[in-house]
Amino acid sequence: MGLITILLLVLLAGAILSLLTKTTAQARGVALVSSFGALAISILMYLMYDANFNTVTHYAFEESGTWMPSIGIGYHVGVDGISLPMVILATIVCALCTVFSWTESKRPNQFFALLLLMDLTLIGVFVSLDFFMFYVFWELTLLPMFFLIGIWGGPRKDYSAIKFLIYTHIASVLMMLGIFALYYFHGASTGIYTFDIPTLVNAYKDGILPISQFWLDFIFVTIMFGFMVKMPSVPFHTWLPDAHVEAPTIGSIILAGVLLKMGGYGLFRVLLPMMGVASTWFIYLIALFGLVSILYSPFAALAQKDLKKLVAFSSIGHMGFISLGVAASVLAGMDPARVVAHTGAMFQMFSHGIITCVLFGCCGVIEHHTHTRIIDDLGGLTKKMPKLAILMIVGFFASLGLPLCSGFVAEFGILSGSYHTMPIFVMLAAISIPFTAGYHLWAVQRTMFGPYNEYLGDVKEIKWFEFLPLAIWTIIFVVLGIYPEPIIGMMQTTAEYFLLSGDVLPIGGIHVAAGGAFPW
Fold first, then answer.
1. 461-398-249 Cα angle (round to 5)
2. Helices vs strands, H then E, count in the chain
3. Alpha-carbon distance 151 to 100, whole Å?
4. Residue 517, helix vs strand vs coil
5. How many whole angstroms separate alpha carbon 342 and alpha carbon 206?
6. What percent of the chain has pLDDT over 90?
7. Helix (H/G/I), strand (E/B), else coil: 39
8. Residue 148 contacts by C-beta under 8 Å, 6 or more apart in sequence?
C-alpha cells in the first residue's frame, strides 16, 4: 500500500469516525488528528518526491491495479510537479480550517465529517490517473460543499447551494460526454477499452484515434467546458459569488482556496496534451476566457458593497491569469519564455489558493465579530482589532500583486512569459492592474481605517484559533514570495517536460498559420 492510498484512507477513516462522535470535542479531535495526519503524509511525499520519481512515466508514488477490468476501470494514482503541490495545498487548507472551526457547535460531527470528506475528494481529483476515478472524485466534491452551504450557510443558503450544484453538475455531465467519447473511440480503434488517463490522452495527441476533426474538437470542447465552469471563467461564473456569500467561512475558504483549482488542474493534466491535435483556435478561446475574466473582475469587485462578495469577484480575475498562461505557453515562441509562463500559471494555483484563504478568513472574522460584512457599515477596525488589521492588510496587498508576496511571483511570470506569444492579450490584461489595486486599497481603507462605527458596539480582538491559521497562511505566501523555489522548482521541472521534451507537445510549441487561429 502506497502513501497516496494511506493518505486517502486516513481522511476516509477520519470522516467516518467524526460522523460517529457524540460531542464537539470528540468530533474536533478526530478531525484534527485526521487532517494533520494527512498534512504530515503530504509533507513526507514532498520530501521523498525525487527519490520516488519515475523518469519513464514521469509520476511519483504511482500505484496501479485492476478494479473493474471488464470495462477498463482501474485504480491508478500518482503525482507529479503540478499535482503534488495541489495535494499539499489541500491538506494545508483543510488542516488549518479545522483549527479555524474550533468553536463550531452546530452539528459538529457532521460539520467536521464533511470537512474531511471535502479534503478526501479534492485530493482524489489531484491524484487520479484513471478517468473513472477522476470523474467520481470530481462529482463527489459537490456533495460536501452543497451541504456545507445548505446547512451552515447564510439567509439564501438553499438558493445558493442548489445553484452551485446545478451549474457545476451540468458542466460535469458535458465533461463526461467527452470522456465517454474518448473511451469509446479508443476501444473501437484499438480493441482496448480503458479509462486510464495517460493512455487515452496519449492516444488522442498521437493521432491513434481514427476520427474526424469534428470528433476531436467535440472531445476537447466538452472537457474544456467542464473545467472552465469550475474555475470559473466569465461568462460561466455567476454561481460563484452567490456560493461564496452564503457559504460559511470555512466553505468559502475551501471553495476558493482549493475547489476552484480543480478547473485549472484539468487544463494541465488533460487539455494541455490535446492542444496540439484539437483545432488551434481553442488555444485562443482559452486565452480569451482568461482575458475577459481578468478585465471583468476588478470592475465587478468595485461595484460590491459586501466585502465577501468583493473578494469572491477577485478570485475570478486571478484564475483568469491561469488560463492566459496555459494558452500562451503552448504556442510556438521562445522556449524560456514559454516555460516561465507555464510555471507561473502552475504557481498561481498554489499562490492564490493560500492568499485567498487569508482574504475569506478575514471576511469571516469581521462578520463573526461585527455581525456585518457591508463595507459602508464598517470602518476603523484597526482600533479594535489590530492583529486582524495587520493580517488583512498583508493579505489584500498580496492579492493585488505586491512584490515579496507569492502572487507577484506568479502573475509576473505569467505576464512576462506570455508576452512573447500573446503580446496583445498581455497588454490588455495589464489594464486591470491599477483597477485591481484600486478595489483592494478601497476595501482596506473603508473597513480598517477612518472613524470607528460606534453602532458596531464593543468589538473584541481576533481569537487565537482564528489568528493562528491566518498567520500561518500569511507566512507561507510571504516566504514563497521571497523564496518560491520549494514549490516552483518542481513545477518548473514538470513545465519543461510538458513543453520541451516533445512527449506532450510538439517541440518548439504549436505553430498557428496566418489567419488560421479562428474558424472564421
1. 50
2. 22, 3
3. 18
4. coil
5. 22
6. 68
7. helix
8. 111, 114, 115, 118, 247, 248, 250, 251
Residues 269-318 have pLDDT tens digits of 999 999 988 888 899 999 999 999 999 999 999 999 999 999 999 999 99
Residue type for position 142: L
The Cα 18–Cα 38 span in angstroms is 15
Beta strand 59-68 pairing with 73-79:
antiparallel
Q: What is the pLDDT of residues 442-469, one digit of tens each?
A: 999 999 998 888 888 888 889 999 999 9
User: What average pLDDT is seen over the chain?
Assistant: 91
Q: Which three cell numbers stand for residue 517?
A: 487561429
Q: How deeply is 110 buried, as exposed, middle or buried, from its count of CB atoms within 10 A (0-12, 13-18, 19+)?
A: middle
Spatial distance between the Cα atoms of 95 and 32, rounded to a whole number of angstroms? 7
Query: Which residues have C-beta within 8 Å of that of residue 485, sequence separation ≥ 6?
Result: none
In sequence order, the β-bridge partners of residue 60 are 53, 79
Q: Nearest 5°: CA angle at 14, between 260 and 355?
A: 30
Contacts of residue 440, defined as CB under 8 A and 6 or more positions apart, other chains included, come to 314, 396, 397, 399, 400
d(C-alpha 319, C-alpha 252), whole Å: 15
pTM value?
Answer: 0.93
Q: In whole angstroms, what is the distance from residue 347 CA to residue 343 CA?
A: 6
Cα distance from N-terminal residue to C-terminal residue, the chain:
53
Which amino acid makes up residue 20? Answer: L
pLDDT above 50 for 413:
yes
Which residues have a Cβ under 8 Å from the Cβ of 439 and sit 6 or more positions away? 298, 301, 302, 310, 314
How many angstroms separate the CA atoms of 177 and 241, rounded? 28
Cell numbers placing 219: 472531445
Which residue matches cell numbers 472537457? 223
Distance of CA 298 to the CA centre of its chain: 20
- Residue 5 C-alpha cell reads as 492510498
Helix (H) or strand (E) holding 75: strand 73-79
Report the SS3 class of residue 54: strand
